[in-house]
From TrEMBL:
Residue span, SCP domain: 171-287
Membrane-spanning ranges: none
Organism of origin: Planobispora siamensis
Protein name (record): SCP domain-containing protein
UniProt cross-references to CDD domains, sorted A to Z: CAP_bacterial
Record region (Disordered): 122-163
Residue ranges, compositional bias (Low complexity): 141-163
Database matches in InterPro entries: CAP_dom, CAP_sf
Signal peptide from the UniProt entry: 1-23
Key words, A-Z: Signal
One Pfam family from the record: CAP
Keyword Signal belongs to the record: yes
């Protein structure tokens, strides 16, 4: 069942840090069921087919197994199988990629009743390991893809911070701040990276959270993105609001999120949005007082 839009917004909160941090926390709704996911096969820089499997929301140890398969007539062929024992986490499996175009997919199972299958991908590689495109079928011209109205990563001019959607979130946030008498926030490239990368991780794991058990908290993610200094920090995250206007509107309807947006001491912002394989957006805002 699809969860209602706006039902999964929450505020980041860390109270035991050496620098002040916004402490508001709205009702979070992390996934409360154990699930596994596996990415569609891609070709990495080394010229190998690669998939990444994830187990999240679980509280028991299990054997997590991934198989990379080649689709073909008759029984599909398992090219490689790998396993890891643990509670939650992710691991990557790789296999050699051949020059002939073939269709691959991956399956994952934890032997606790959880299993998943990736989308299929048609891939090929050159003998040197450099990925080569699969040729389009002959006879019928391949139509040029038209830009969609809400791409995951829109094209932006060189030097611009963030995607079109991310910048629209910043613009709408600053409109709300102006209404309350606060100065505009500047979209910082390092904070944009911190926000975008966290949205990408949430989308890959299909889980909205401020901190994964095996990952850093949001302040450390800001530091990892190269940002230094700062006297106060905060974070907003959300899932499945389909437009920048929808997510900013939902944040403004929540007292905790609104408090972060309307905190006049914040001067910098990073906004990030990445969609999962179902096309559901994961949104992140990080705020810093410089």
């Amino acid at each position: 069942m699809r969860r209602p839009l706006g039902a999964l917004v929450c505020i980041g909160s860390l109270a035991a840090l050496s620098t002040p941090v916004a402490a508001a926390h709205a009702a979070a709704a992390p996934r409360d069921t154990c699930q596994v996911q596996v990415s569609a096969p891609t070709v990495n820089a080394a010229g190998k087919i690669q998939v990444t499997g994830t187990r999240a929301g679980c509280d028991d140890r299990a054997l997590l197994r991934i198989r990379i398969k080649q689709a073909r007539r008759g029984p599909d062929r398992t090219l490689k199988s790998g396993a890891r024992v643990g509670v939650n986490g992710q691991f990557t499996l790789k296999v050699k990629c051949g020059p002939a175009p073939r269709t691959y997919y991956a399956v994952i199972v934890d032997y606790r009743g959880n299993a998943a299958k990736s989308k299929a991908a048609r891939l090929s590689c050159s003998p040197t390991g450099t990925p080569t495109p699969t040729p389009a079928p002959t006879g019928t011209p391949t139509p040029t893809a038209k830009p969609t109205g809400n791409p995951t990563t829109p094209t932006t001019p060189p030097g611009t911070v963030g995607t079109a959607e991310e910048n629209e979130v910043v613009r709408l946030t600053n409109i709300e701040r102006q209404k309350g008498g606060c100065g505009p926030l500047k979209h910082d490239p390092q904070l944009n990276k911190a926000a975008h990368d966290h949205s990408a991780t949430q989308a890959a794991r299909n889980q909205m959270t401020h901190k994964f058990p095996d990952g850093p908290d949001f302040v450390q993610r800001i530091r990892n993105a190269g940002f230094t200094g700062g006297s106060a920090f905060a974070e907003n995250v959300a899932w499945n609001q389909r437009t920048p206007a929808a997510v900013v509107s939902d944040w403004m309807k929540s007292s905790g999120h609104r408090a972060n947006i309307m905190n006049c001491k914040f001067t910098l912002i990073g906004a990030g949005m990445v969609k999962n394989t179902k096309g559901e957006p994961y949104w992140t805002q990080v705020f810093v007082a410089k």
